[in-house]
Specification:
This protein has 274 residues and is an alpha/beta fold. The protein has a single domain, classed as Rossmann fold, CATH 3.40.50.1820. Helix content is 31%, strand content 17%. The protein has helices spanning 39-47, 105-126, 139-151, 168-173, 193-196, 219-231, 255-273, and strands at residues 15-17, 27-32, 66-70, 75-78, 83-86, 132-137, 157-161, 205-211, 235-241. The chain has a seven-stranded mixed beta sheet with strand order 1-3-2-6-7-8-9, with helices on both faces. Helix 2 packs across helix 3 (139-151). The longest helix has 22 residues, at 105-126. The chain is globular and about 50 Å long. GO terms for molecular function: carboxylic ester hydrolase activity; palmitoyl-(protein) hydrolase activity. InterPro entries: AB_hydrolase_fold (IPR029058), LYPA1-2/EST-like (IPR050565), PLipase/COase/thioEstase (IPR003140). It comes from Orbilia javanica. This is Phospholipase/carboxylesterase/thioesterase domain-containing protein.
Length: 274
């Protein structure tokens, strides 16, 4: 059963995993699910995924001071499946995300506005945007990347798995330093910090992982996202996996979960020092 809708946006209330008491709250991870899933489903699946270490440990127990926020997308009509499903935005083709790309703008625009509100709420709780890590898997990564590139936030880090960058061709064709606007409703300027000298995002570490055998989102789309982020000045830690469940379109266990733990622990230490 889905949680009650957010009073302002209509999005379901995010699923929250609080820091283990009495551990202090040191950082927050906002992690977005893929198409057809929910925040609660993603949290449950992550909690049951294998990590290296004690057999009774999971990713949450190994990050006891972390507050996890799992938002859920609105139900939307899927053009390709001809039915309503939870998805951050409508998309016609995963093999070629640029096909009928006009279908993506309404959902992405709404998602960015909702996630900006959510981010502001979490930053107000923890008092420091550098203690917030944004991430997602599959369509969740794609949505989070749009927020990363258009939101102007200085996060503590970004994590993405099995995803892609929407409107990648338009971003690639735009000279660095020029203002770029995703078409129609999604009209936030892209942060081209590499050439403009802005500090927004440039020092932010980024972890991107993708399965070489991903049957749903091609490996080339993941490596394209890596290349675009690097060209924009981000420091990308790129990870390749093979043999994950769901035909390669999931976190490789335990390697990907171990990579997340390492990345977050490093960022926690840095944010506490800063």
């Amino acid at each position: 059963m889905m949680n009650a809708a957010h009073p302002r946006t209509g999005y379901p209330t995010p699923h929250i995993i609080h820091p283990a008491a009495p551990t202090p709250h040191t950082n927050t991870i906002i992690f977005l699910h893929g198409r057809g899933s929910t925040g609660l489903e993603l949290a449950d699946e992550l909690g049951s995924s294998k990590i290296s270490g004690p057999p009774d440990a999971n990713i949450f127990s190994q990050l006891p001071s972390t507050r996890w926020v799992f938002p859920t997308a609105k139900p939307r009509f899927s053009t390709v499946f001809q039915e309503e499903m939870t998805e951050w935005f409508d998309i016609y083709s995963l093999s070629d995300p640029s096909e009928r790309s006009e279908l993506q703008t309404e959902g992405l625009s709404e998602a960015v506005l909702f996630l900006r509100d959510l981010l502001d709420e979490e930053i107000a709780i923890i008092k420091d945007p550098k203690r917030v890590i944004l991430g997602g898997i599959s369509q969740g990564e794609a949505t989070a990347l749009v927020l990363l590139l258009t939101g102007g936030y200085e996060f503590g880090g970004f994590m993405g798995f099995s995803g892609w960058i929407p409107f990648a061709g338009l971003i690639q064709n735009e000279p660095l330093g020029n203002p770029f606007k995703i078409p129609q409703d999604l009209n936030y300027p892209l942060q081209m910090c590499k050439e403009t000298g802005s500090r927004t995002g440039c020092d932010m570490p980024v972890l991107i992982g993708h399965g070489r055998d991903d049957a749903y989102v091609d490996f080339a789309l993941g490596s394209q996202a890596r290349d675009i982020l690097q060209n924009l000045g981000y420091k990308v830690d790129w990870r390749e996996y093979e043999g994950a469940e769901q035909e390669g379109h999931w976190f490789k266990e335990p390697e990907a979960l171990d990579d997340i733990l390492r990345f977050v622990k490093e960022r926690c230490m840095v944010s506490l020092i800063e």
